[in-house]
Design goal:
20% of the residues lie in helices and 39% in strands. By secondary structure, it is an alpha+beta fold.
Length: 133
């Protein structure tokens, strides 16, 4: 009986590290079911910090570790369907050549070094300033 307990203990000791290795391989080689999904609420947020007639400055914040983030981007457009995108390496994004007096919608996203894309859940908006008459 003692030998059987030792065998079971040995199996448990070997199985746990093997399962950890299998999980790590699955996460890094494209097993989509185990990777984080897009649109995690609260993972990414953005706010328009300065808006003019034809530009807007957007600050993106994320709870991802900074060394995991490869690119930060904004999808934007004149409808909630968005339609345009721009990327930067940092958390500060400038949108230029915008139309004055227009409502723009935007949503942030982050790409990590593994190629995963994380979208901000909420689409926000801002209005560019009107041209003076």
């Amino acid at each position: 009986m003692e030998g059987m307990e030792t065998n079971q203990t040995l199996k448990r000791k070997l199985l746990a590290p093997a399962m950890a290795i299998i999980l790590a391989i699955a996460l890094t080689t494209g097993c989509e079911d185990l990777r984080p999904k897009d649109n995690w609420p609260g993972l990414i947020d953005a706010s328009a910090t300065d808006v003019g007639e034809n530009y807007a400055e957007i600050e993106v914040s994320t709870v991802l570790e900074s060394n995991a983030v490869r690119k930060v981007g904004i999808e934007y457009g004149t409808s909630s369907s968005l339609g345009y995108a721009t990327e930067m390496s940092g958390a500060h994004i400038s949108l230029t050549a915008l139309q004055s007096g227009t409502r723009y919608y935007y949503r942030p996203y982050v790409k990590d070094y593994m190629g995963n894309l994380y979208n901000g859940l909420q689409i926000k908006s801002f209005n560019t300033k009107e041209k003076p008459v």
